[in-house]
Amino acid sequence: MEQQEQGSGMEERGQRRPRVQKNVTRAIASDICADVFPVGSYLPRENDLCERYGVSRTVIRETLKVLESKGMVRGRSRVGTIVCNKDEWNILDSQVLEWIGERIFEFDLLNCILEARRAIEPAAAEFAAERATVQEIADLERAWQAMRDGERDLVGFTDADVAFHTCLLKASHNQVFLQLVGIIQAALKFSLHASNEVAERRDEAIDIHGELVEALRLRDKVRARDCSMRMLDLAARDLKIAVERHRPALSAR
Amino acid sequence: MEQQEQGSGMEERGQRRPRVQKNVTRAIASDICADVFPVGSYLPRENDLCERYGVSRTVIRETLKVLESKGMVRGRSRVGTIVCNKDEWNILDSQVLEWIGERIFEFDLLNCILEARRAIEPAAAEFAAERATVQEIADLERAWQAMRDGERDLVGFTDADVAFHTCLLKASHNQVFLQLVGIIQAALKFSLHASNEVAERRDEAIDIHGELVEALRLRDKVRARDCSMRMLDLAARDLKIAVERHRPALSAR
DNA sequence: TCAATTGCCTTTGTATGATGAATGAGCTAG
DNA sequence: CTAGCTCATTCATCATACAAAGGCAATTGA
What values do phi and psi take at A229, rounded to 5? Predict the structure, then answer.
């Protein structure tokens, strides 16, 4: 698609000025995640970054401001810009999660997310049973049907699952829970991909998701919470598989 | 052209070049929170913002990038910068919470936070009972002692309470929970201030906090969870009082 | 008359150079 | 060897110039 970074050469500086801000931000963020700029080290000087990514200082500085606002780097006058420890990063920010991407396996994050989901999603399901609108329940049902329809389509199934859990958090009518949609999406995305070949688990998942929709219809808090917890037990198994598969990649380093 | 004395609210000027980025960011963010720039409206043109806040376009643009990265505004090329709906804001970002400040009462957020705390903190207490290091338990005890010592000092008591809950989340050794320290701090800050005159409640709170430390020492998950829940019952009462006191301010609008 | 194309205008996006400000390093003096 | 000063380097800000693109209106064709 679009890429202009890494062009250390960058001889031809044509008159054209494409919109590069987003790409540069993603490039630098990815490089940080990939340990090209390790935690604790200083980034190159702004002028060097300009060369390395082939853009002006304006773009570099706006990029650094964004990364700083997400806790990934910290700039100090005259000294330079240092990469912060990972536990200072705003890992709940969905953009940050996107930048981390598959490297989430190296962040020891998925387990934390699962623990958090066990605390949050059952509560959200309970609230949803009380507060979900008819429309929201219909949305959930549609997502559930998409899961059934996409039973053989890995990507479709995953997307539908993500949509389901997103709708559930929305239906809880709690702003805080809603903010956590990003980490849940990330967790689903990366743990499902590794376990989606196991067909019977998907059947089981579809059943439980359907049961949750029914519980919401009946405004049955207890059953909604129970469904959510069983869902998370499945998620725990999926995660286990996913981590197993990624361990080789880790030890290869 | 655009760089004489225009103050317009900002402090200090002259030929000098103070570091203004943070101030301008806070100023614009606060103005957004104060509905000077209401949700859904367009911000003034960048050049007008330069005049209004008395800084160059560079500073304005870096500010807008930061606000955009936190979901508060969205810029579209050539069209302008629009203020996003509040439910798109990254309200888990502690900087955003600082900018919101007291207006948190108008955001219908404190109730959501309490609900979230009821889901999260008991779980965190349980994990802490399993995982807290000796050092972390000592930190918690010190925070608890500070609460006792600051029993008569409103600010000191609140700070110690915030420190206690922060330590607790740290002791849970879960990165996701740790990220939620910001909203919990905000919740404590604004609900305690309204209820801290009620001395006997503070006594009760101190007792429960002490009991939690003891439970962690004994690695007693069940009791730790129970203490946490009782703490939140107190917090619920505090919040009720705080909201009552602020309702006049709301209806006055 | 109406609709689609085209070109202009305005505002954002990017580039660039200059200068103030700040801090670590090196130097000087005691 | 320490304390204080100077200086060089790099970030922070300002100012300006121009490219890019959305919206608007005039123009043109039917």
Answer: -65, -40
